[in-house]
Amino acid sequence: MPIIPTTKTPNKNLNGGIENMKKTLGIALNIILYIFVYFASMFGSGLVLRIFTLPNPEFKSWVLNNQGILMAVTSLIAFIILSLIFMLKKKSLIAYCGFKGFSLKSLPLVVLTGIALGVFSICAVKTPFIANMCPALNETLKSITEGELVLIAILGPVILGSFIEEVLFRGALLNELAKGFKKVTAVILHGLLFTVIYGFMAGDLFVGAYAALGAVIFGLIYIWLDSIWAAIAAHVTSSMCLLILNRTNNPLSSGNGAAVVALISLLTLITALYFIKSISSNKAQNAGKSYTA
């Protein structure tokens, strides 16, 4: 009886499992790296300012009264480090993050989303329920845009701060999560990371939850419009709205009217996001029709 030769075939399941483990490990290490960049930038900016302000007490007092300068220096350091990391990986940070234009039709909706989020944030923290439950949140929102010089507050937290947060957390971190998860799942997971990071920094979980709200909203805009500029536009608009409302005695965010305005702005926010998603879906459908035509 002839002997039938047997050939050894590779275990595809085992190889696939190893590849998935490598991929997951790579994603986890990159996420840790990006978070490290953020904290290292904060430490580095504090160290730089401490060195420059030690010999000059007057300059130190000025810096303390204009915390926006700290955010500006942090943002610049973070962007430089992140750019160097991508250069070492032989990748383009600009291309990876999606620095490309988006539909002008969606621009008013993006701006409206930012305004609605800013108004909701200011008014929600003034409602008795949230004010009593989380007094630290109101102080956190004030600290974002306070300072003697409005120009520094605009340059630091509003422009540079918003820019680097979108590049680092949406452009780099969210994209990394999207390698292993569906996009919406990745947005939710990166929102949970925001809760931990900012909750740890502020020592208050509610502050972290608020940060996660913004992260999820900007993340959805990013993946739906496929452009980091759209997320930056929404973030800058929201931060600018916070600055204006924090520095003016506006009647909308005080008394019983705060809850009403918070509800209206929340509904506006949801509506704007719905139409942004609709634009994204229509664009995808049209692209599919063009491809099959």
Task: Explain this structure.
The chain has 293 residues and is mainly α. It has one domain. It is built from twelve helices and no strands. The longest helix is centred in the first third of the chain and has 42 residues, at 12-53.
Helix content: over 70%
| Portion in beta strands | under 5%
Low-pLDDT regions: 289-293
| Structural class by SSE content | mainly alpha
Order of helices and strands: HHHHHHHHHHHH
Number of strands: 0
Mean pLDDT over the residues = 84
What Rg, in angstroms, do the CA atoms define? 23 Å
Counting copies of identical and different chains, the oligomeric state is single chain
Task: Summarize the main sheet.
Answer: none
Distance between the termini: 60 Å
Number of domain modules: 1
Mass-distribution shape:
globular
Number of distinct helices: 12
List the helices and strands and how they pair.
Layout: H1 12-53, H2 57-64, H3 68-88, H4 93-97, H5 107-126, H6 128-133, H7 135-145, H8 150-178, H9 183-202, H10 205-225, H11 228-246, H12 257-292
Helix pairs in contact: 1-2, 1-3, 1-8, 3-8, 5-7, 5-11, 5-12, 7-11, 8-9, 8-10, 8-11, 9-10, 10-11, 10-12
